[in-house]
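Morning!

As promised:
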Amino acid sequence: GNSVTQMEGPVTLSEEAFLTINCTYTATGYPSLFWYVQYPGEGLQLLLKATKADDKGSNKGFEATYRKETTSFHLEKGSVQVSDSAVYFCARNQAGTALIFGKGTTLSVSS
Amino acid sequence: DVKVTQSSRYLVKRTGEKVFLECVQDMDHENMFWYRQDPGLGLRLIYFSYDVKMKEKGDIPEGYSVSREKKERFSLILESASTNQTSMYLCASSPGTVNSPLHFGNGTRLTVT
């Protein structure tokens, strides 16, 4: 089964609202963790990553902290914008460099 | 910037046809990957390659094969397309180091009728 679990969407927020997208993983050992974003009509882009426990990845106002105790890597942003509307994927690595992805969470931000 | 180019944005093929999806990367990356993306299922790994002429099965290789004759090019082949292979196909590449992020192309939306 899928070893990366994301909260189901869609998530609908008003501009400037606080965002949390939950992500948990199962793995042997300590994988690297990633958040990717997919804007409409495009491929996936790396948003942020963390490679060891307690690392915090950040980019474009988004943050996620690698929590070993809870096997989680929740994505947060303090104030979302309409331009953040996209699909967000949590992922962990496996077998070296291949990634396992969650099912994706669609975020829709309205003005 | 890394550029991963997928040759077709949209493809429509008939059941039973042999289909080639092409992917080229311009950063001399060791690793290349093919995923398919379906609503409610996320991305699933079909095949990947660590080097020229090398390939490894991913989670859903049935019905697919791949070819990597040159380092920059990774082709996905549907030997006999079926309607359940209608999907968005995403190619990605990465350097040969662990923990490196994947760089994705914009995808090929394949419809099999």
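Chain B has a mean pLDDT of 94.

Hope this helps with the figure draft.
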